[in-house]
Design a protein that fits this description.
The protein is α+β, with helices and mostly antiparallel strands. It is built from 5 helices and 10 strands, in the order H-H-E-E-H-E-E-E-E-E-H-E-E-E-H.
């Protein structure tokens, strides 16, 4: 029982530290930071802001945007592809990560290690209005902001 209480106290302190404005740079994988946005872009950022931040950004044939920069990391795994989704109002609402084939088996355990127990029986985590989901067999991970996703 003491271990459980100690774990909760550590988590509360960590969350308080992350939420504190007086702290140094935030961990980009901390839930409070993920709830804010991804890659320095707040959820709901306009497509124009994305293109200004990433001058080499490009629209793929599938309708996804990519930064045109190097690979990104999610839950400690370097992703082969990271794609950005914008709703009809051209607001950032979704980021999709596709790992290399050899890293697919590692994705769900890495997310479990990063976020703790998922919501329900699947590999879905809720962080405020953000839904983090690892698809079956680790083929894909997504960050979806519910507020902006309604207009997709």
């Amino acid at each position: 029982m003491e271990d459980v209480m100690s774990d909760w106290i550590r988590r509360l302190r960590r969350r308080r530290d992350v939420d504190s404005a007086s702290q140094g740079p935030l961990d980009p994988m901390a839930p409070a930071t993920l709830a804010y946005g991804w890659n320095g872009l707040p959820w709901g950022s306009a497509l124009a802001e994305f293109r200004n931040r990433f001058p080499h950004a490009d629209l793929t044939s599938g309708g996804w945007w990519v930064t045109g920069e190097g690979p990104e990391e999610f839950c400690g795994i370097t992703m082969a592809y990271t794609q950005y989704g914008f709703n009809r109002r051209q607001e950032l609402y979704l980021v999709s990560f596709i790992p290399e084939t050899q890293d697919r088996a590692s994705l769900a355990p890495a997310a479990l290690n990063m976020f703790g127990a998922p919501s329900g029986m699947g590999t879905v985590w809720n962080v405020g209005q953000l839904v983090v989901e690892v698809k079956v067999a680790g083929v894909l991970a997504t960050l979806t902001h519910e507020r902006f996703g309604r207009h997709a």
